[in-house]
C-alpha cells in the first residue's frame, strides 16, 4: 500500500477502533491459482481475528496460508470548493479521504464444534446488541444448531502486523481541514458524517 508518512496511522486504539467499528472484511489469500478473495465479518478478540465460512469455501482448505484482511472505514469525496486556500490561489483539486486497516497474519482453520459454538455466541452477542430483544443461538432448536456447526469451518488470524492509512487531509493546513469537516457535515451523504467525526477526532488528538 502506498503510505506517505503523514497518512500513516500506527496507534493501536485507532487501528483497533476502525476494525471494531467496521468488522466486515475483505480477506485476500494468495495461492497457486491466483488470489482468493472472500468477504466476511471478523470479530477481533484481543490480537486475534475470528470468523467462519461455509465448509465448502476455499478458505477452509487453506490452513496455514498467509493472509491479508482489509477493513474499510468511512470514506468520501472532497471538493476543492471546501478549501479556503482555493478561494485565495485557485491551486486546489478534488481528492478522496478515507481510513483503512490492512491486517497481516496466517490463517488457522478450526472445525472443533465447541470452539465454533463459542464463536457463534460471541458474534451474535456483538451484532444483536442493539436489538430490543437480542436473538441468541440458543433460541434455535439444538438439532438445527448442531447441523449448522457441522457445515461451517472456523477461521482465526493472529495479527502479525497492521498497516493503517487514515487519509484525512493531514497534508493541508488547519483551515483547509476545517473546511473539509464543515463541507462533509453540510453534504451529509453516505459516510460523510462518520468521516467528518473521524477527522475531528484526529484534530483533537493532535491539538
From TrEMBL:
<protein>
    <recommendedName>
        <fullName>Transcriptional regulator</fullName>
    </recommendedName>
</protein>
<dbReference type="Pfam" id="PF04299">
    <property type="entry name" value="FMN_bind_2"/>
</dbReference>
<dbReference type="InterPro" id="IPR007396">
    <property type="entry name" value="TR_PAI2-type"/>
</dbReference>
<dbReference type="InterPro" id="IPR012349">
    <property type="entry name" value="Split_barrel_FMN-bd"/>
</dbReference>
Amino acid at each position: 500500500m502506498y503510505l506517505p508518512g503523514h497518512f500513516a496511522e500506527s496507534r493501536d486504539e485507532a487501528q483497533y477502533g476502525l476494525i471494531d467499528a467496521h468488522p466486515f472484511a475483505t480477506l485476500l489469500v494468495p495461492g497457486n491459482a491466483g488470489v482468493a478473495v472472500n468477504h466476511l465479518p471478523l470479530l477481533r478478540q484481543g490480537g486475534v481475528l475470528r470468523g467462519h465460512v461455509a465448509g465448502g469455501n476455499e478458505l477452509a482448505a487453506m490452513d496455514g496460508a498467509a493472509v491479508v484482511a482489509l477493513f474499510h472505514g468511512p470514506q468520501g469525496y472532497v471538493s476543492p470548493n471546501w478549501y479556503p486556500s482555493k478561494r485565495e490561489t485557485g491551486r486546489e483539486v478534488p481528492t478522496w479521504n478515507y481510513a483503512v486497516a490492512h491486517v497481516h497474519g496466517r490463517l488457522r482453520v478450526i472445525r472443533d464444534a465447541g470452539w465454533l459454538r463459542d464463536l457463534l455466541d460471541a458474534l451474535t452477542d456483538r451484532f444483536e446488541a442493539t436489538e430490543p430483544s437480542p436473538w441468541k443461538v440458543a433460541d434455535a432448536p439444538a438439532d438445527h444448531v448442531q447441523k449448522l456447526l457441522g457445515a461451517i469451518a472456523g477461521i482465526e488470524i493472529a495479527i502479525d502486523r497492521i498497516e493503517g492509512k487514515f487519509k484525512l487531509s493531514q497534508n493541508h493546513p488547519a483551515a483547509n481541514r476545517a473546511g473539509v469537516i464543515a463541507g462533509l457535515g453540510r453534504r451529509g451523504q453516505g459516510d460523510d458524517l462518520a468521516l467528518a467525526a473521524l477527522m475531528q477526532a484526529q484534530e483533537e488528538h493532535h491539538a
